Fold this protein.
Amino acid sequence: MSAALSMTTAPATPGLATAADPILSVRGLSVEYEASRPGFWSKPTRVQALRDISFDIRPGETLGLVGESGSGKTTIGRAVLRRIDTSDGRILFKGQDITNVRGEALRKLRRHMQLVFQDPYASLNPRMRVLDIVAEPLIVHGIVRSAEEARDQIGELLRLTGLPRDAHDRFPHAFSGGQRQRIGIARALALKPEFIVADEPVSALDVSVRAQVVNLLQDLQKELGLAYLFIAHDLSVVRHISHRVAILHSGRLVEIADRDTLYENPLHPYTEALLSAVPVPHPRTQRARKRLIYKGDIPDVAHWPTGCHFHARCPHATERCSLQVPPLVRKAPDHQVACWHR
Amino acid sequence: MAVISPAVPTAAAKPRAGSFSALAAELWHDKAGLFGFAIIVLLIVLAFIAPLITPYDPALQSVAARLKPPVWMAKGSWEHLLGTDHLGRDVLSRVMAGARTSLIVGVSVVLLAGSFGVLVGLFAGFKGGRTDAVLMRLVDIQVAFPGLLMILLIVSVIGPSMTTMIVVLAITNWMIYARVVRGIVLSVRQTPYVEAAEVIGCKPARVIFKHILPNLTSPLLTLGILEFTNIVLAEAAMSFLGLGVQPPATSWGLDVANGKDYIFVAWWLITFPGLSISVTVLAINLFANWLRVTTDPQEREKRFARAKAAERRRAGRTAPTPVEA
Amino acid sequence: MDAISEMPLLEVERLQVEFDTRAGIVHGLRGVDLSIRRGETLALVGESGSGKSVTAQAVMGLIDVPGRIAGGDIRWKGQSLLKGDGPRRAKDIRGKEVALIFQDPMTSLNPLITIGAQIGEVLQRHLGMTKAQARIRVLELLEAVGIPAPPRRAAQYPHELSGGMRQRVMIAMAIACEPQLLIADEPTTALDVTIQAQVLELIAGLQETLKLSVILITHDLGVVAGLCQRVAVMYAGRIVETGLADDLFERPSHPYTQGLIRSTPRLDDRLERLVSIEGAPPSLLAPPRGCAFEPRCPIAEARCGTEPPLAIVHAGASAACWKPSQPAWRDVPASAEPAPVS
């Protein structure tokens, strides 16, 4: 807990801005999906994917967002980027409410927030040259008229992302997975955004290439002062890259804290289970760790339980947990948790 | 900052160079596809130069030379290679001229129905929601409506002619394009690079034409060619029923219809136009199959590997025996 | 008795697998040597394209056009499965004495048949059980792999089960014939961490109770650390290092292994920067003549242009490197003091 308290006076990492206003604030965000339409005229059944999500991201900061499949982490990323509509709550970007921004205003907003994709193979149009791919954002925003005009500018981006100088005129298939991910990052950076949603940017890459891209993202953050929403399921990578970490379970944030506090002093039983389930790649250490393996499955998005979504698997659960939803409560200046027993 | 060594050559990188000669070599290896291709080329050439090389005017009647058998038969003569019909018209000339009709009708209908169907499919797939539902129900309704009845209705109102036939066939054949295109658009819309285009701020038109449409070319090419065979058959059927091409113009279907009364006295009257229809349809199917495999990288790779494996077996290399077949 | 237990259960010797592609012959395996004894757990670690899955497929006789075995031998209890009447013998062994589980259980389960019937079919075909016998055994098996309420589950179809449950069904099917060797090809890659922990625990438990030998194929070093006694690291179609797990993680010999371990972020470390292995694995269309890792190796020198043999480095460990055990990556401290993890 002492680590958490010290957070109030000093930033955990040099790159982190202290008093700056958040670049992104999410308040009470909920998202519903149309699951299926029973008939042509009838109202579609709706499934709630996210419920009451609130968090901030400060300029130059990385917020790691961790969750298992079906937890809604990708949905948060898409909602923040205004790719999908919210059913409740507000999204503020640099103090401006963007919850209902549409059309041309939304297109303008794209210059400030970008997305890095998970799959480096599917996220690049195989029929376009690297130059055309990276220059497309500049063209569609009217900054340059043609890809050729942007050649020098793109060259600079390619250098920044560690791509070979002659990459311009080649097609994506001529590159390896790691290099393609660099092309995707270069495209995201072309408009000089301040905020990037990175949706599992390294999980599709090979182990030996992951570190390249993680290091690149960190270097770019230092150089350009970017803020990241880093979505991942791999807690080890998240610890490495994030300043703060949010844990998502079945559409709700269960814990959010600065990195070291969360990893060293987790409060929510789900966070504990998650951390203990991640194997450490070192046999002796791994054998010595105590592991909490909870029985049961992750609840399905269409049939969420009442109360705390984790209560069926939680060893501390009481009757209250199965009836009432625990609110996200601030336990320390930079540590919030949603649990009745902590 | 990381500097990456020049890209590794991947399997997909190489065959780009000299892709035309590579394609030709691949077609040469696939004999069925080659046969199809040859017949299609012949058909196209015939259609263009038929008026120049037909030995007789296909509509020229000659009472003196009625029902002459082909040249190799006892009473055949070199003047009429494939014989003559009941009005003394040269069968060879008529078959050649018929190719022209088939090609014109086939190509026009495919283009007309194709463009309409593609537009509907694109619109439905991209808009989604209720627009999609309404458009696709329309498609369902028309698919469920008997095509022949529709043709009879329209032709009996407007009267038969080549133009009518083209329009009518287009009206009854656009639905498949709409369905196929909508399906592809729906799946391509899900691909990350289309999402990427939207996230960087591309307008819908750019997303559709730059990122979605190119994915349609090869499936549409295959579909169009296969549909062409349907149209050739439909044209023959309509002309056979007297709803299509009207004399003095010629068509294979019309010739089969004319010849059917003489089937026991002059078998060549329906055999040659009929054979032309069958061979054309077969050839196009063979070629379309080759094309489908060739435009699908995975299928193409498989075909190559199978050919290679067969080659190895023939060579009977006595390297380690392969484990199971 | 001793002699039998000493004899390796499975030996793979100089195994070569080639694939015909339009771009040329891809040398998938370029001489793989491997052996596993009774009751042993061996991890086969490598990136995509390194040949780890191809090795498993070759052992299971699943190499089909475009692939073919171009050289080498596979021996089961000392008898060849490739030469003489080996292929015929292999049919009886595969699926019965050697079982395989895949990464994605959904693709290997028939969606139209209940899981009970699918497991029962294996029992009837391989062990000649009657339907009634099989039904009883199916319930025992489902119980053994930790599926709650076996009678109800046996009547369900694969799509009614969660990913973790499906993988348990696959494991039940694999152990149905009481195999001596279980090959698990990325068994937990598609699963979430908490579910992954459950499945790994299950495999470890079964290994103990059934005295199974296990070959675990994975790219995740963490999974290896928790489960395996011995590790073989593959790179570009060859095994570059083998050794006891504890030893290999403590003092890796091959520069690639060193890099792999140091580029993997750990839950319990606070490294500011990961080691990054630059570049990408070589194309196997034209594999390098010498050491395949040479272009990416920071300590490569002239003699690395010729292929190093897999030679013993120290007791129980071998590496294919001319300069084994030399520290290859200097730019980052070997290991920071481990941070506490809950």
User: Anything to note?
Assistant: Chain B touches chain A at residues 1-10, 12-13, 133, 191-193, 195-203, 206, 210-211, 214 (CB under 8 Å). Chain B is about 70% helix and 0% strand.
